[in-house]
Each structure stands twice: as structure tokens, then as C-alpha cells.
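ok, trying the design again with the full structure, not the truncated one.
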């Protein structure tokens, strides 16, 4: 413990593990500590007995649910976009050699009380029951514009500068109806509210292109992939990567108190009477509670079922997005379902999550519309957790704090936070230009 490190990372949540892996690969001397005796922090995966212990105390799970060891229930379940930021990080760091992935069966959207497959291309738009005949034609033209759009080819811009034109202006050019805008903005571009409509259209179009490219990657029913045995494998894979490059890991280290000098700058971490010195500290919000502020709350239901979500084509793994307007809410609701096909439950069992940004203190009431779409459930657990983001000045105190995980069931916002933190810590942009033709092989498809 008496060595000096470039960076000490506190907490083995997914964001912290990705960062320690990236920093180690790039030559930083890293010490990674966690007060828990297991990897994953808030983003850990639980066996059935661990899940029961967390929510039901000393009760034992019923034998009808099968073997406890066959369950890997992610506490922060999220799918990865096949062409998205996290997959680029995985390939960039070669972590894929420690993991196996499988495509996710379905991507759906809730519209006017029903669940529909998300159309992502001009061909799918023409087939989709989401829209009437004339709207299909308008949507097809819009999808073709997005598919053909190339930032460096002015001919594809149709006279519009997407850095100046808002998403609302771009969409209005095609005369799309509100319900169509709803599913495009929320289940294709994955915006969690409608504020994107009044921002430059470039980000909106890039997000739609990412969705379509990810969908084409594996020719599956969705643009998403998910690791076999759940997300609990990811922090451990990045921990292994960090160790290969000289990173040091210490689990079960109580307290982990960050030490500051007279100028308020972090210079080390003390645990069990020993202080390890460092230039910078990276951690999740729980390690520096006085340097973060509460920005919201997530409500979620965790369900064990014996069937797939109805109206999703018997999908063994699926995401359903319920746009805010469809529910009369301020934020979207998300359904996530995985099963024995990804080795997260025994044969015949499915794990479903319903999550949203909480607007009340009654998760049972707030999540009812989503839970009702699941059909009968064997067991259900409700909880809420607070979301925090840093309020410190990292240039002054040299502390780099991740934001809490949001309600989304995809990784795009998580990866943005990691990449931004990497740039703050190193002063360099993370180059994620990787050969995605290698992605199919690397991600096990």
C-alpha cells in the first residue's frame, strides 16, 4: 500500500472497471479498491439466494424457481448496441476474448396501448402496422434520407445544415405524425425525453444511423447484444484486463477514505490504517457523498416469469420502450427481458425489469402500466434508488466521479459518461475507431 499510483479507482462498478482497464492499457499505474468482497458495485449480478436476501431478508426462495446458481440477475440491466460505444471499447481493449455475446431477439415500442416491432429501415417502415398507408410513404422517405446521409457528402444533405436545423424542423419537412415522431425519437434515436426536438438535428440523425447499422450487423431482430451469463461478467473482464497491464486489485477493503491536502487536492486513499498515494482518484458517487448532488430517482420492478413478454414474437430477450407521451409521463419507461437463452436463469425462466425515472414515491403505482404488459409473474420485487452526479471541480480536487446509472435499458448514456471521464482524467480523446468488421467475430456472433 505504500507505493504511489497514477490513479486509484474506488468501486468495481461497470464504469469504474472500464476506466481502470482503459487507463491500465494506456500505461497508467492503477490501484483498484472496493469496500465489497465482490465485483460490480451497484451493477453487480445476483444469484437467486442473493436476490432473496436483498429484498426478502432471511426468507428462502421457493424450490419451484429452480437452482439459485443458475440465476444471474443484473441489478442495472442494459443491452449493448452492436455498433455502439461499449462494443467499440470492448474491441479497442480486446476484452472480448474474456466474454461471449449473443444477439437480443427483439426491439419493440409501445404505441396506443399495444406493443409493436420497431421499424428501423425504409423497407420495415412500409411493412409496419404502426402507421397508415400514407404515413408509411412519408416515413419511408425520411428513413431513406437518414440512411443516405453522409456528413462529408453535401449532395446527401438536401440543402440542410444539420448542425443548425433542429430535429423538429427536419422531421416537419417530411410531415410525420406525432405518434411516428414518438417511436422514431424514443425507440430508434433512444432519446429519453422530447428535448432533442429543439436541438440541432445532427445528433438525432447519427443516433438513428447507429441503430440501423447495429441492426444490420447481425441480421437479427434487434440492434442489441448481451453477454452470456449477464453483465456481471463485464466488470470482471475489465478487471482481468487491468491486471494484465499491471493494475492492482484489492477487494473487501473497508472504509476507503480519500485523503486531501491543505489545497483540497486528493493525494491518496486510506484503508485499514494504510495510505496509498496517488495523483488522481476515480470513484462512484458512494465514495465521495459530499461531492455529489441528487438529480433524480429510478423506480424499478424485478420480475421472475415462466414465459416471454406477450406480443413480442416469443422473444427470449427483448427491449420494449414506452415513450413518455404514450403514458402521460415526463420520461420514458423501459421493459427489459432476458432468459435462459443468455444463461441468466434456469431453463423455462425469464427475468424481466420495468424501469423509469421516478416521479412519485410509489413504484408499484408508477410502474403498473409496464408491469401489466408482462402478463402473469412468478415473483416481483419493487425498489427505488437515487441518482447522483458530481458537483465538484475535478481540476481543483483531482477527483473524477461517475454519474449514477439511469433508467434506460441500453448502454449509450453509460458509455458517454465513461468516455467523457477518460478525457477529463487523461486530457486526451479516446480513439474508438476500430474495425467493426471484426466485431461480429469478436462478440461471438
Amino acid at each position: 500500500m505504500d507505493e504511489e499510483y497514477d490513479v486509484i479507482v474506488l468501486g468495481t462498478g461497470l464504469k469504474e472497471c472500464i476506466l481502470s482497464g482503459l487507463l491500465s492499457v494506456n500505461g497508467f499505474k492503477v490501484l483498484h479498491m472496493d469496500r465489497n468482497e465482490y465485483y460490480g458495485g451497484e451493477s453487480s449480478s445476483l444469484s437467486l439466494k442473493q436476490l432473496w436476501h436483498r429484498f426478502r431478508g432471511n426468507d428462502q426462495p421457493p424450490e419451484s424457481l429452480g437452482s439459485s446458481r443458475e440465476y444471474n440477475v443484473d441489478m442495472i440491466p442494459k443491452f449493448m448496441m452492436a455498433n455502439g460505444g461499449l462494443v467499440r471499447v470492448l474491441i479497442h481493449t480486446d476484452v472480448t476474448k474474456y466474454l461471449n455475446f449473443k444477439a437480443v431477439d427483439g426491439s419493440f415500442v409501445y404505441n396506443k396501448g399495444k406493443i409493436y416491432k420497431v421499424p428501423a429501415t425504409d423497407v420495415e417502415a412500409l411493412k409496419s402496422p404502426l402507421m397508415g398507408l400514407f404515413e408509411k410513404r412519408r416515413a419511408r422517405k425520411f428513413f431513406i434520407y437518414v440512411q443516405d446521409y453522409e456528413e462529408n457528402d453535401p449532395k446527401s444533405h438536401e440543402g440542410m445544415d444539420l448542425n443548425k436545423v433542429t430535429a423538429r424542423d427536419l422531421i416537419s419537412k417530411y410531415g410525420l405524425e406525432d405518434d411516428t415522431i414518438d417511436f422514431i425519437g424514443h425507440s430508434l434515436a433512444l432519446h429519453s425525453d422530447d428535448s432533442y426536438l429543439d436541438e440541432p438535428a445532427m445528433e438525432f440523425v447519427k443516433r438513428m444511423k447507429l441503430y440501423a447499422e447495429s441492426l444490420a450487423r447481425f441480421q437479427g431482430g434487434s440492434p442489441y447484444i448481451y453477454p452470456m451469463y449477464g453483465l456481471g461478467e463485464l466488470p470482471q473482464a475489465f478487471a482481468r484486463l487491468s491486471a494484465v497491464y499491471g493494475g492492482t486489485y484489492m477487494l473487501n477493503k473497508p472504509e476507503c477514505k480519500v485523503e486531501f491536502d491543505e489545497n483540497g487536492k486528493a493525494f491518496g486513499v486510506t484503508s485499514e490504517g494504510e495510505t496509498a498515494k496517488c495523483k488522481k482518484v476515480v470513484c462512484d458517487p458512494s465514495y465521495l457523498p459530499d461531492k455529489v448532488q441528487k438529480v433524480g430517482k429510478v423506480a424499478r420492478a424485478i420480475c421472475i416469469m415462466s414465459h416471454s413478454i406477450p406480443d413480442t414474437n416469443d422473444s427470449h430477450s427483448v427491449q420494449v420502450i414506452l415513450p413518455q407521451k404514450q403514458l402521460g409521463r415526463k420520461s420514458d419507461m423501459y421493459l427489459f427481458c432476458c432468459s435462459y437463452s443468455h444463461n441468466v436463469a434456469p431453463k423455462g425462466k425469464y427475468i424481466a425489469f420495468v424501469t423509469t425515472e421516478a416521479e412519485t414515491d410509489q413504484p408499484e403505482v408508477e410502474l403498473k402500466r409496464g408491469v401489466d404488459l408482462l402478463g402473469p409473474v412468478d415473483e416481483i420485487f419493487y425498489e427505488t434508488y437515487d441518482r447522483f452526479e458530481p458537483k465538484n471541480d475535478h481540476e481543483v480536487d483531482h477527483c473524477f466521479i461517475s454519474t449514477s446509472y439511469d433508467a434506460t435499458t441500453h448502454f449509450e448514456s453509460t458509455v458517454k459518461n465513461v468516455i467523457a471521464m477518460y478525457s477529463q482524467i487523461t486530457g486526451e480523446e479516446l480513439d474508438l475507431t476500430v474495425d467493426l468488421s471484426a466485431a461480429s467475430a469478436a462478440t461471438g456472433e
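Keeping the full-length input from now on. The longest strand covers residues 292-305.
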